[in-house]
Amino acid sequence: xxxxxxxxxxxxxxxxxxxxVATPVKYQQSNSDTHTVSQIALSxxxxxxxxxxxxxxxxxxxxxxxxxxxxxxxxxLPSQMESFNKVRIVDQSGQEIAAKTETSKERxxxxxxxxxxxxxSVEVQFIGVQRRVPIEKILLYGVTAKRVGLxxxxxxxxxxxxxxxxx
Length: 167
Fold this sequence. Notes:
Elements (H helix, E strand, L loop, with lengths): L1 H21 L25 E8 L2 E7 L5 E7 L4 E3 L2 E6 L7 E5 L3 E10 L4 E7 L2 E2 L6 E10 L6 E9 L5
Antiparallel strand pairs: 1-2, 2-8, 3-7, 3-10, 4-9, 5-8, 6-7, 10-11
Keywords: Signal
Protein name: DUF2808 domain-containing protein
Organism: Nostoc paludosum FACHB-159
């Protein structure tokens, strides 16, 4: 008998709570809001990738420097990359930025002589890129940075390079 009462009581609680969840909520919009278009404003206040691509045999990655100055960039190289001739770093006006680069098989580390100030951009160009597997049409470069005044690497994102078909 006890089991029947508890079972009935449980079913009653479950039914009433489910009905409360399923009850529609009435929403009334004022006339002043009817002509307003919903928009989402997104303010990015950290360094981020703004563009990446291919120009002839040069792969480029553009990073917007926002929020704080950056003192270096680290770029993980895709496994399909065989080699490249050199790395060139330029600002938004195309002027070369003084920096030291260290290259290993898996990554390129760029240390700027002077921190790159917030409000500008940095474009890293890999000139003379040769790939191991020419069939691969997408190369992914992982990008991190060190910001002035903070320890540790800050992930910036993954730059996607789509290789165009020749012909």
